[in-house]
Amino acid sequence: MQKTKEIKLGLAVLASGIMSFCGVLIETAMTVTFPTLMKEFNVSTASIQWITTIYLLVIAITVPLSSYLLKKISLQSLFLFANIMFFLGLMTDFTAKSFGLLLLGRCFQGLATGIALPLMFHIILTYAPINKRGTMIGLGVLITSVAPAIGPTYGGILATTYSWHYIFLLLIPIIVFSLLIGLIAIPRQKVLSKAKLDWASMLGIILMFSGALCFLSNIEQLISLIYFLVAGLGFLIFYKASKSNEAPLIQLSLFTNKKFRFFLLGFLICQTMLLGISFIVPNYIQIVLGGTAFESGLVMIPGAVVGALLAPLSGRLLDNFGAKRPILIGIAVTIIGWGGLCLTLGKIGSIGIIIGHVFYMIGIGLCYSNLMTVGMNQLSKAYQNDGNAIFNTLQQFSGAVSTALVAVIINLVQNNGSHGIKAATTLGSQIAMLIILALMCFVFIGCWRIFTSKAD
């Protein structure tokens, strides 16, 4: 009986995880096609990153709704809706003849992934035993981390051999497979909650996230100040609504928990690294080294595979030995690998990039999912859904910010200097990487203090 429950739990996590997998797969698969798409649609570096940013923005807006949706709609109904939205997004992008239609399809996919991600972790947090939570969260991260491993190669092969449109077409059978598993394994229990949606908070989140991303994407222009004011207004609306509502969309009180707050920050910096490098490396390979989209994908795959495979293993280490060692060792290895790659960029070829990428992804594999696990363990059961929503919302928003920030920095250096395009791309990439490196060093110091101030 217990074995049957465990199998069904694994299948339910797999079904919801496949949609998240497909979303991340397309995200990284499309990055290697950016130079091609820039020419086809006649858009700039700052504009093309909206293929990733709009997707992550929709997720960041959708995920905060997860806590409310999970109280109002059955798990299986939510899963079915997300599956249909993802299918619609795939068909829209496969047939897209303009940049606008391509972005529309990404919005549908973002909506689906924004439901699937918290649904997957909700199933784990609700049905997995506490002594297996680290392993199960690691499994969930593995499902979504495998996608970056094969995404660039998948996208590079199709874009080089056929057309970027086929990146979307070939995922349709996978989504159908996800649907079949989900209908069998995802729980069907009725939902009896009378929770009401906090519309003011929702409006605030939309204005805050949209304004912030538009500000970053247009930071060179005067209109960016308007976007900044929109983001600030959104934050004020969200903050006041959350404080005055008895059942807010997101429980801001959780941020008073120092350990939860800091482990969340560490998790978000790891996400920033993952998305930032997915933009930097393909552009560097193609613009600086003169490689193809396919070669860009091959360079990314070894490190991404290593990081993905380490996720469940690192979760098992946490379950058996505690969080201190895997997290601190993981962050230290990440800092060394990322720093080395940053300082040698422009002096190394594809092999050097592979070595640096693999090295720091070993560190990411050890600490990434464990930062989420130990952060969630700081919360009582009553706040698990709220913590889940916070982690997944800010994960996607930080990914969108990192992509936009890296694109803007590279674009600024390309357009405002005496360097040639190759030198400017290298310098812009190094500046972006140094900023992220400084943030990760701050995270290491904070985690060290938390783990050494009291026995883990």
What does this structure look like?
This protein has about 450 residues and is mainly α. It folds into two domains: about 1-185 and about 250-455, Growth Hormone, Chain: A; about 200-250. Helix content is about 80%, strand content about 0%. The chain has 18 helices and no strands. Helix 6 runs antiparallel to helix 7, helix 6 packs antiparallel against helix 10 and helix 7 (about 100-125) runs antiparallel to helix 8 (about 135-160). The mean pLDDT is about 85.
In short:
The protein is mostly helical and 456 residues long.
Key features of this structure:
456 residues; mainly alpha; Growth Hormone, Chain: A; 18 helices; globular
Topology, pairings included?
Blueprint: H1 2-31, H2 34-41, H3 45-48, H4 50-62, H5 66-72, H6 75-94, H7 99-127, H8 133-161, H9 166-169, H10 172-185, H11 199-217, H12 224-244, H13 258-288, H14 293-321, H15 324-344, H16 350-376, H17 384-415, H18 421-453
Helix pairs in contact: 1-7, 1-8, 1-10, 4-7, 4-11, 4-17, 6-7, 6-10, 7-8, 7-17, 8-14, 8-16, 11-12, 11-17, 13-14, 13-16, 13-17, 13-18, 14-16, 15-16, 15-18, 17-18
Quaternary structure annotation: single chain
Q: What is the CATH level 1 assignment of the largest domain?
A: Mainly Alpha
The main sheet comes to: none
H/E element sequence = HHHHHHHHHHHHHHHHHH
Number of domains: 2
Low-confidence stretches: none
Characterize the overall form. globular
In the CATH hierarchy, the architecture of the largest domain is: Up-down Bundle
Which percent bin holds the helix content? Answer: over 70%
Radius of gyration, in angstroms, nearest whole number = 21 Å
Task: Enumerate how many helices there are, as a single number.
Answer: 18
The CATH superfamily title of the largest domain = MFS general substrate transporter like domains
Distance between the termini: 34 Å
- CATH topology name of the largest domain, in short, is Growth Hormone, Chain: A
